[in-house]
Every structure is written in structure tokens, then in C-alpha cells.
Write a structure and sequence with these properties.
The protein folds into two domains: about 25-180, no CATH class; about 190-295, no CATH class. It is built from nine helices and 14 strands. The chain is α+β, with helices and mostly antiparallel strands. Helix content is about 35%, strand content about 25%. The strands form three sheets. It has a seven-stranded mixed beta sheet. A four-stranded antiparallel beta sheet has the order 8-9-10-14, covered by helices on one side.
């Protein structure tokens, strides 16, 4: 009887948790200066996590905030709309303001900084370092951005309870960052039912369509030589993928060494086909239907 009661309680608990997770979230984005591209403070009620995003052009003004006078983790982000990609630098600092000012004078690549802040100031040094290591490993495994850190920080030893606390804090941060239209922390899994293929006379590639992004699968092939009409950003992006061992040079073609998430579907098609490409028409499912037929028509 006792064991049966435990099963019932466990099932009820799971139902309550599932119901809670499915509830809508109201996220607040506060603009202290009325400028949408200046300082953005993102949070929601009853959460301890807060995200502060500051563009580099206004970094000195943003660093005046009291929340940034403590030890937090931060992410330097370089994004360029016409390349649909990110370069990321993840680090933590005891004096966050001094560290970011140092980066402002010594690091050229970034154009915004995102700071992870705890509303209750209940992240200690070990928590912050654990989160720093977790972020680096996640970005590497997801292939959603180029991680510019030369070394992955060591992971500190913390208890199981503290680990769950840090990961719950990260889950909150992930949603808040996504609400600012940064998707380099995306942990979405592939949907096998939404598998698309792209092929030409020489190569074939397979990927999953995930909202606005494309996950190109490992061992997918790319045409080796760009056409004369290929955009300069296509050539540049393919070179970056080769330099980072995501694309392997197989003499007559390139091959993806791992799954890779593209922020733009058109960028994925252009990289694979080495030319200008309309992603709505280049990709087909098992029934030979294009994305245009599947999604728009």
C-alpha cells in the first residue's frame, strides 16, 4: 500500500510540474533610455535571473548600473546580420566593470556584452565558475556560435543540490536571452519528422528545420568550389567553418564534421551549394516537396 501511494504521489507531482512548465511567461524588457538598441534589462516575476545587454558603443553608460558592481558571468558577443552568425567570448570576473572596460580597450571583435545577474545575489564564486564552464561546453556542443575562448575554464566541484540550482538559473537566463533574439544558447533537439534534404549533381546534405534555424547534420556534403556569383560572406563563412574544423576538406567536396546550427536557412543553403541560393526552393522532403510547398503554400 505504501509503495502504491508513492507511485500515485509521484504521478501527481509529475502532472503538476508538466502543467507548471506549460504555463505562459510574461517577460519584461526595460529600456532605461527609451532606445531599443541601447541598454536592455530583461527579467520576469518570481525569477532570480536577470539579463543586462549593453551595446559596445554605450558600454561606459551601461557599466554605471549598481547590478554590475559584483562578481558575475558575462558574454562578449559579435553578431553581424548579413553573416547570420555569432562569435562568443565567455568569462567571469570578480570586478565585472573593470574587466569589461579592459575588453573594451583590448578586444576588437565584440559589439555587445550580455551580463548574467542574480536578483537575490545568491550566486557564489563556485556557482559562477560552474556556469562559466557549462556555457562554454554548451556552445561547443551545439555549434551555434564560434567560441573564441582559448581554453575552457575548469569546472569546480559543487554538490548535487548546488548543481541543480545553477542549472535552473541557467534555464531562466536561456529564455531571457532568447527573448532578446539571441539564439546562441539554443538547446532545441532535432525533429526527425521534419527532416529535409538538399542535393545537387555532386553532393547531398540533410538537415532539420527548427523554427527560424537549420540544423545541418554530420556528414552532410558541401560543393567544394564557390561559383563566381557567390556572395563574399558565403566565401568568408565557409572559410571560418573550415578553420574551425566544422567543415573537412575532402579534395572534391567539404563534409560536415559535426552537426551545425545555422541562424539563417538561406545561409545554410548558400554554404552547402557554394552559391546564391533560395532556401524555400532548394530543400525538399522525402516526398520531393520543397519548403515553399510545405510551409507557405
Amino acid at each position: 500500500m505504501v509503495r502504491r501511494d508513492r507511485v500515485v504521489i509521484r504521478r501527481c507531482t509529475n502532472f503538476i510540474l508538466d502543467f507548471y512548465i506549460m504555463r505562459w511567461k510574461t517577460i519584461s524588457i526595460y529600456l532605461p533610455s527609451w532606445e531599443s538598441q541601447w541598454l536592455r534589462i530583461c527579467d520576469t516575476k518570481n525569477w532570480i535571473a536577470k539579463i543586462i545587454a549593453i551595446p559596445r558603443a554605450r558600454v561606459e553608460d551601461g557599466l554605471k548600473r549598481d547590478e554590475l558592481k559584483k562578481s558575475w558571468i558575462y558574454v562578449l558577443v559579435w553578431e553581424q546580420d548579413d553573416l547570420w552568425m555569432y562569435e562568443i567570448y565567455v568569462w567571469e570576473a570578480e570586478k565585472l566593470i573593470n574587466r569589461i572596460r579592459q575588453h573594451n580597450s583590448s578586444k576588437d571583435f565584440w559589439n555587445s556584452v550580455i551580463c548574467f545577474v542574480s536578483e537575490k545575489n545568491n550566486l557564489n564564486k563556485a556557482h559562477v565558475r560552474y556556469l562559466e564552464n557549462y556555457l562554454c561546453d554548451l556552445i561547443k556542443s551545439n555549434n551555434t556560435a564560434y567560441l573564441t575562448n582559448s581554453n575552457t575554464p575548469n569546472k569546480p566541484t559543487i554538490s548535487e543540490q548546488e548543481t541543480d540550482f545553477v542549472l535552473n538559473f541557467f534555464d531562466e537566463c536561456e529564455l531571457l536571452i532568447a527573448s532578446l533574439w539571441y539564439n546562441f544558447l539554443s538547446t532545441k533537439k532535432r525533429n526527425q519528422a521534419n527532416e529535409i534534404f538538399c542535393k545537387s549533381k555532386w553532393i547531398q546534405a540533410f538537415w532539420n528545420y527548427i523554427d527560424w534555424s537549420i540544423l545541418v547534420k554530420k556528414w552532410s556534403e558541401c560543393i567544394h568550389k564557390e561559383t563566381k556569383t557567390a556572395w563574399s560572406w558565403v566565401i568568408w563563412m565557409r572559410k571560418k567553418l573550415v578553420d574551425n574544423w566544422i567543415l573537412l576538406n575532402k579534395i572534391d567536396r567539404y563534409v560536415f564534421n559535426d552537426d551545425y546550427m545555422f541562424n539563417s536557412p538561406s545561409a545554410a543553403a548558400a554554404v552547402v551549394l557554394a552559391r546564391r541560393a533560395n532556401w524555400w526552393l532548394e530543400r525538399k522532403d522525402d516526398n520531393n516537396k520543397t519548403i515553399d510547398e510545405l510551409e507557405r503554400q
